[in-house]
Design brief:
Blueprint (H helix, E strand, L loop, with lengths): L2 E3 L5 E6 L4 H10 L6 E5 L5 H12 L3 E5 L2 E5 L11 H5 L5 H10 L1 E5 L12 H9 L2 E6 L2 E6 L5 E5 L5 H10 L5 E5 L5 H13 L2 E5 L2 E5 L8 E4 L4 H14 E6 L7 H9 L3 E4 L3 E5 L3 E2 L2 E3 L11 H7 L3 E2 L1 E5 L8 H8 L4 E4 L2 E5 L9 E2 L3 H13 L4 E4 L2 H4 L5 H7 L4 E3 L1
Parallel strand pairs: 2-14, 3-13, 9-10, 17-19, 18-20, 23-24
Antiparallel strand pairs: 1-24, 1-25, 3-5, 4-5, 6-8, 7-8, 10-12, 11-12, 14-16, 15-16, 20-22, 21-22
Bound molecules: ligand EPZ.
Length: 412
């Protein structure tokens, strides 16, 4: 899908934050672990969610998705090899592996896809599965995992800090009587998944970054859970306000955005916030220094967004990406748009400017596409963004919501 963005929009208004993409994907997979029905509220209407729903329906689950509420009934769930297209399209399909190991002690699945922001191996996941007593084979892009010995207990140390591997390992060990997991990485989205599992009746505790699990009896009951707000979406709209007008973002957990908000405040931007709202007004700030890191460090998913904000700084800002190997595309787009921007490997130095010569752009991943939208909105002429489908993977109804704020966007 391509969109055309016209210049000269005045952005002003409110936007209500959607549910978090990176929480709802594992939550949907984890719904198979319930002994009854699951009702999820605040579910974002994004393509990754629709893809996961297709996989749930393929597994004979009943899925009713109305507005932002979803009811999942896994009564007729049965084991099937996960060799369907949706598993290859997105990264989060790999959460079905841990869930299947918990339910069936086996899994056959197409290796995951997702944004091309680096090699994105799953070696940390696979090592953890082996530590839990599983064996795996990878042939022609199909991962087959099976149980070789029955471990009742396990004590694991994940080989690297990984959001996905931490959640997947929690899932995969749920058949054991007891396990502990060290060196995990639990961002707000991962904590939301742990809270959900606790609601299902799984006896999980997280203390000093160590997960402890004791097997317990699950009840058959309807579980209701509200997905936490998407902190990346919230900050994307707040940066739009800082660049282009005035935006109030509602229903946010600002405690999950402590560092990005602190950086903006310290740089002197016109931004204020309560526990659940952010108000951002067009303003200029001092230069910013950002180095992405694991939570609660600066989130890699906001790096491209802040790269565009850097054009509104007085002076030179410096941004360094340390989590993924290939997430610097936006800085080449800034250079092409007339911004003084030096790129050295995973580091960029951006000089603030108020002159953006719009170009035609091509999105190469979800957050890059969102950053391009911000760049096109501040540009001095009309711009076309191709491959905008990437953005629809993680931003609920973004075209209509930006248009409602005053953005001039046409879907081509
Ligand atoms: C999750 O990716 C998110 N995706 C990403 O969001 C997010 O950027 C990332 O966490 C960090 O916050 C989903 O939740 C679906 P990692 P994930 O495992 O789980 C390497 C977005 O835009 N690694 O913490 O894949 C990996 O290559 C997306 O919403 C291994 O080497 O992140 C990366 O360099 C993009 N081996 C680093 O660790 C492994 O087995 C962090 O990856 C796993 C990861």
């Amino acid at each position: 899908m391509d969109i055309k963005v016209s210049s000269g929009s005045i952005i002003k208004g409110n936007v209500v934050c959607s549910g978090a993409k990176n929480a709802v994907i594992p939550l949907l997979c984890a719904s198979l672990l319930s002994k009854g029905k699951v009702m999820l509220r605040n579910v974002p209407r994004i393509s990754d969610v629709f893809d996961i729903c297709n996989i749930l329906r393929y597994l004979d689950c009943k899925v009713i998705f109305k507005g932002h509420t979803m009811l999942i009934d896994n009564t007729n769930l049965k084991y099937k090899p996960l060799l369907i297209e949706e598993c290859k399209k997105i990264r989060g399909s790999y959460y079905f592996i841990g869930v299947f190991l918990a339910l069936f002690s086996k899994c056959e699945i197409l290796l995951p896809g997702g944004c091309k922001i680096g090699s994105r191996p799953i070696d940390v996941h696979l090592q953890a599965f082996e530590d839990l007593g599983f064996k795996y084979i990878i042939e022609d892009d199909i991962l087959t995992i099976f149980k070789t010995k029955v471990n009742e207990e396990a004590s694991l140390v994940l080989t690297k800090k990984s959001v996905g591997a931490s959640i997947n390992t929690i899932f995969a060990g749920l058949r054991l009587n007891h396990y502990e997991i060290k060196n995990g990485l639990y961002e707000p989205e991962g904590l939301d998944v742990i809270h959900f599992l606790q609601k299902l009746g799984y006896r999980l505790t997280l203390k000093d970054e160590v997960i402890q699990y004791e097997k317990s009896k699950l009840d058959f009951k309807l579980i209701k859970h509200t997905v936490i707000p998407d902190r990346m979406e919230a900050m994307t709209y707040a940066v739009l306000g800082l660049l282009k007008g005035e935006v109030t973002v509602k229903r946010v957990n600002t405690k999950d955005l402590e560092l990005p908000l602190r950086i903006l405040k310290d740089a002197g931007y016109q931004i204020s916030y309560t526990e659940s709202e952010i108000y951002a007004k067009k303003s200029y700030g001092k230069e910013i220094e950002i180095k992405t890191d694991i939570y609660p460090g600066f989130p890699t998913d906001l790096q491209s967004i802040f790269g565009v904000l850097a054009i509104n700084t007085i002076g030179k800002s410096r941004i360094e990406e340390t989590v993924f190997e290939k997430r610097m595309q936006i800085y080449y787009d800034l250079k092409d748009s007339g911004v003084d921007c030096k790129i050295t490997g995973n580091k960029a130095e951006i000089t603030g400017t108020n002159k953006i010569h719009s170009k035609n752009y091509s999105a190469c991943d979800l957050r890059h596409g969102a950053a391009l939208l911000l760049l096109a909105l501040v540009g001095d002429e009309e711009a076309i963004i191709s491959n905008f489908d990437y953005v629809l993977r993680g931003y609920d109804d973004i075209v209509n919501r930006v248009k409602a704020l005053g953005g001039k966007i046409t879907i081509l």
